[in-house]
């Protein structure tokens, strides 16, 4: 596929990764595990995209974080905040409405009456 085509696909998927992160992080998780889970669930994301996204969502108040230093290698765990839960609900509702609207484009146009 050409670069322009790929750019459109990437643009469409960008917002879905935000929603997927907010929903997956209802249970605490760290970056690398989240990256793997996103991949398993069909949300291809790269580390150089995910980590800045996590930091941005945390700065905006949609995620909280804490360091786990119990293991040999400290890890930063993220969790969706109450504001993040509200955002995820709004994004999910909007996604469902957009999906229904897109599906309706396959139906014949309604007649004006």
How would you describe what is shown here?
This protein has 113 residues and is an alpha+beta fold. It has a domain at 14-91: Winged helix-like DNA-binding domain superfamily/Winged helix DNA-binding domain (Arc Repressor Mutant, subunit A). It has helices at residues 3-24, 31-40, 47-59, 82-104, and strands at 29-30, 63-68, 75-80.
In short:
This protein is an alpha+beta fold. The chain has four helices and three strands. It has helices at residues 3-24, 31-40, 47-59, 82-104; strands at residues 29-30, 63-68, 75-80.
Number of helices: 4
Backbone structural class: alpha+beta
Topology order in helix (H) and strand (E) letters:
HEHHEEH
Strand line-up across the major sheet: 1-3-2
Amount of beta strand:
5-15%
Mean pLDDT: 91
Radius of gyration: 17 Å
The proportion of residues forming helix, as a percent range, comes to 55-70%
* Poorly predicted spans: none
Defining traits:
alpha+beta; 113 residues; Arc Repressor Mutant, subunit A; three-stranded antiparallel beta sheet
What is the element layout, followed by pairings?
Blueprint (H helix, E strand, L loop, with lengths): L2 H22 L4 E2 H10 L6 H13 L3 E6 L6 E6 L1 H23 L9
Antiparallel strand pairs: 1-3, 2-3
């Amino acid at each position: 596929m050409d670069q322009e085509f790929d750019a459109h696909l990437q643009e469409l998927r960008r917002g879905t990764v935000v929603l997927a992160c907010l929903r997956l992080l209802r249970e605490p998780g760290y970056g690398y595990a989240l990256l793997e889970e996103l991949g398993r669930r069909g949300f291809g994301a790269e580390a150089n995209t995910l980590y800045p996204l996590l930091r941005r969502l945390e700065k905006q108040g949609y995620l909280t974080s804490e360091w786990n230093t119990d293991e040999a290698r400290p890890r930063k765990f993220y969790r969706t905040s109450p504001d993040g839960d509200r955002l995820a609900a709004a994004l999910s509702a909007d996604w469902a409405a957009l999906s229904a609207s897109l599906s309706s484009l396959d139906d014949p146009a309604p007649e004006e009456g």
